[in-house]
Amino acid sequence: MMRTKISRWMTPSLIAMSLSGVLLSQASYADVELPIVPASVMKQSATANPPVQSNSVAADTPTTLLMTPGVNELIPVALGHLNRIVTPFESPKVRTTSDAQTQIKGNVVYVATDKESPVSLYITPPGQEAPALSVTLVPRRIPPREITLAIDGQQWPIKGVVNRKAATWETAQPYVDNLRDLLRRLALNELPQGYDIRLAVQTDISPKCFQPGLKFGFKQGQIVTGHYFTVYVGLVESFADEPIEASEIACHAPDIVASAYWPRNILLPGEKTELYLVVRNHREEAVESQRPSLLVGGE
After folding, report:
1. What is the CB-side half-sphere exposure of residue 241 using CA atoms within 13 A?
2. Which pLDDT does position 262 carry in this prediction?
3. Which of 40, 42, 163, 174 could form a disulfide with 227 if both were Cys (CB 3.0 to 4.6 A apart)?
4. d(CA 266, CA 274)
5. What are the residues whose beta carbons fall under 8 Å from the beta carbon of 142, sequence distance 6 or more?
6. Which residue, 94, 130, 125, 128, is CA-closest to 109?
């Protein structure tokens, strides 16, 4: 419905002339017969103007990639701009046959290219050839990007793998307070700064736990990893005939530093609770020099 604003200064004759003009205009359009467009013409028009491929990266394009060593990943990057690749290695080494410019700062690789040809990179830890992260950068006319590479699956016990954010959080308070805060955050369904979480897989070595009346399960659990600590999250179920208190020393694994049950440690028959086991990560440290023993080669 069309509304027409009429000024109070218009005379009746002017109003009549305006309305008659509108009616005549509508009548003249009603007498016009529109030609019928053949279907073949419509098809030709549709194929003559194909959709234009956009160079923009979708909003849901991941900025963190879980990498499997030996499996190549395609990554869109900015053409003619500096791109930032955050690696899980302290001082990564980059190998490529491309003319692209690369620069390493800490655990970050900066890459820039002014050519549209793809750039293939192998990124490895310092002084080692495994694990090797394989990426192919596809230049596009998009803004500069930052991509974080994380290693999928089990943690690699190698020198050079670092988690700076987690290490900063873990050393920001005394040792015991840090463990207590770590367990509290997990119970609140939170992750500490820099920590990663993944589902357990069949190849993971789970802690061994035993207590009469209780069933422990880690195969369908979670693994939460920081820099110095890894937390195994599992389920505990009671099949006892009476209430039972879950023991915090029921599990055995190398370097367990803390454990806790949540939301309860006294279970009724059929009840379940979560178990958090904190294990210290083993990391190789560089040995700058060695002291010869007095017991070797002497009296």
Report:
1. 0
2. 95
3. 163
4. 12
5. 55, 56, 57, 76, 77, 78, 79
6. 94
How large is the average pLDDT for residues 270-289?
A: 78
- Reported as a single tens digit per residue, the pLDDT across 40-95 is 544 454 444 444 334 444 434 557 788 888 889 999 999 999 999 988 787 889 99
Give how far Cα 164 sits from Cα of 86, 103, 172, 193, 287, Å.
11, 19, 12, 10, 21
At 157, the pLDDT band (50, 70, 90 cuts) reads: very low
pLDDT at residue 241 greater than cutoff 90: yes
Contacts of 125 (CB under 8 A, 6+ apart): 89, 90, 92, 93, 131, 158, 159, 160, 161
Smallest CA-to-CA distance from 57 within 74, 76, 80, 84 is with 76
Cα distances from 174 to residues 92, 183, 257, in angstroms, run: 31, 14, 14
Cis peptide before 243 (omega within 30 of 0): no
pTM score, two decimals? 0.48
* CATH code 1.10.3470 for 64-151: no
Q: Which two tokens stand for residue 159?
A: 């020198």
Contacts of 150 (CB under 8 A, 6+ apart): 64, 65, 66, 67, 88, 196
Q: Where in the chain is the domain with CATH 2.60.40?
A: 64-151
CA distances from 125 to 68, 69, 246 (A): 15, 12, 42
Given a cut of 70, is residue 28 above it in pLDDT? no
Query: What's the sign of the alpha-carbon dihedral 15, 18, 20, 23?
Result: negative
Q: Whose CA is closest to 228, among 273, 260, 258, 187?
A: 258
